[in-house]
Design goal:
Blueprint lengths: L11 H7 L6 E4 L3 E5 L9 E5 L12 H22 L3 E5 L15 E6 L16 H12 L3
Bound molecules: adenosine monophosphate.
The site of adenosine monophosphate has 13 residues, from loops.
């Protein structure tokens, strides 16, 4: 599958890493960047991306970068859980357009689940209010 998708260095997540595109940042270190999903499926929906890997999916990321990435996902997910106290946390990762992937720079979704609240649509609908996202991001950032 991965041989069908060439890594595009101008994808929107690569632009965020370079600072050429804005995002509502939650956390950043040498290896990962975490930011709020602009079309959140629930309150606190956060994305985690590797900063150094030029990979589109799980299949083409090298294992050293993958280890850093999944450690970052755990770290950010713990902060999301501590800050927002959801009833559950879904971790998702899509591979290929047919699976639902819309941005071809590998990433993990951290989606808080609140009992009785249905999830919003994946990657669609109206974008969230940035001031609200910023407020949520600062609550998460305060929980590391
Ligand atoms: P996927 O569909 O798994 O590739 O996930 C890509 C995610 O990026 C979707 O959940 C989108 O809502 C999200 N997204 C798209 N554009 C932006 C943006 N400018 N800032 C933050 N999240 C975005």
């Amino acid at each position: 599958m991965t041989d069908k998708v060439k890594y595009d260095p101008d994808n929107i997540f690569a632009k965020m890493i370079r600072g050429d595109m804005s995002c509502v940042k939650v956390y950043e270190d040498d290896t990962i960047l975490a930011f709020m999903d602009i079309f959140p499926q629930s309150e606190g929906h956060t994305l985690v991306i590797p900063k150094k890997a030029k990979a589109t999916m799980l299949f083409d990321i090298d294992t050293d970068h993958l280890k850093d990435l999944i450690e970052g996902v755990q770290k950010v997910a713990r902060a999301v859980d501590k800050a927002l106290k959801p009833d559950g946390v879904r971790i998702a990762q899509f591979n290929g357009a047919e699976s639902g992937q819309t941005v071809f720079h590998i990433h993990f979704h951290i989606i808080p689940i609140y009992a009785g609240q249905p999830l919003g649509r994946h990657a669609g609908g109206a974008p969230a209010d940035v001031s609200r996202l910023t407020e949520t991001a600062s609550r998460i950032a305060g929980a590391f």
